[in-house]
Amino acid sequence: MQTFDPIEYKKMVKQYQEDNKPLDWFDTIYKNANGDYKKVFWADLEASPYLINWLKNNKINKQAPKAIVIGCGVGDDAEALSDFGFEVTAFDISPTAIELCKKRYPNTKVDYLVANLFEYDKSWLKNFDLVYECNTIQVLPGDYRIKARVAISNLLTIGGYVLVSCRSREENKNLTDIPLPLDKKEINQFVQSDGLEEISFLAYDDNQTPSVPHFFAVYKRVK
């Protein structure tokens, strides 16, 4: 795929999922950009306005609080967190994505790393004040979604926040979509299964035509 073809993209992802290799296709997307981060089709090339709004209105009272970005892509959200005073670790399973980040931000303070959400360093456990998850769970199938959610929750220190940004859908609808958006029941598992506390929850439609429904949820580890 030298240019983005949504049909071919979905076919590719489906095949990897059926082969039980649901993590092996990500690097392909970044390699197809041929070194130009602007050609990564899913990159917005700006930090999430919902993330920025949350950062403007919420303060973590620590000296240099720690943040981690899941599947950081080409780095926009990670750089925003750094600009707001966080010590940021940002990782992606795609080596090419990390190369693009380092090329794009040669003077960055962010620690960009190649890492796997399911096999991250044990020193990361319960070590971050803020975890930012954007659109990772929705591209995974089946039990991988549960494992991803648990792995994300386990990064939070006591008093830490996880911000979850994703596409949304009604329960029992669009079950074969790729990516498969989260429904309210699934995202609620951050509370019901992982023991986090819901701080805020926003359901909204974006400005695309046609509009796409999303969730932006904030959860806190209280114990």
Automatic annotation (TrEMBL):
Keywords: Methyltransferase, Transferase. Residues 70-163 form the Methyltransferase type domain. It comes from the Bacteria. InterPro entries: Methyltransf_11, SAM-dependent_MTases_sf. GO terms for molecular function: thiopurine S-methyltransferase activity. The keyword Transferase applies. GO terms for biological process: methylation. This is Methyltransferase type 11. It comes from Arcobacter nitrofigilis (strain ATCC 33309 / DSM 7299 / CCUG 15893 / LMG 7604 / NCTC 12251 / CI) (Campylobacter nitrofigilis).
